[in-house]
Design goal:
By secondary structure, the chain is mainly beta. It is 0% helix and 48% strand.
Length: 71
């Protein structure tokens, strides 16, 4: 799964309903799009939860997101 934004960010995310947390820095592209790739396995629980920390402004996005996976 790829998460994209137009500014540098740290993706604050979890694949187990916030029991454990990962922080992944975005990668810049030559067209000024930042991204983080999250590998989804076949044993993946049903969702990924995440939010953004904007690294340039040192601010949190005051919103949490959830992406659900279904068969």
């Amino acid at each position: 799964m790829r998460i994209q934004a137009l500014a540098p960010f740290c993706l604050h995310w979890s694949n187990d309903k916030w029991q454990t947390i990962q922080n992944t820095q975005s990668t810049a592209t030559s067209i000024d799009i930042e991204f983080v790739d999250i590998t989804i396995s076949s044993q993946q629980p049903s969702c990924i939860d995440f939010t953004f920390f904007w690294t340039d402004s040192q601010n949190w996005k005051n919103c949490k997101y959830q992406v659900a996976f279904v068969d």
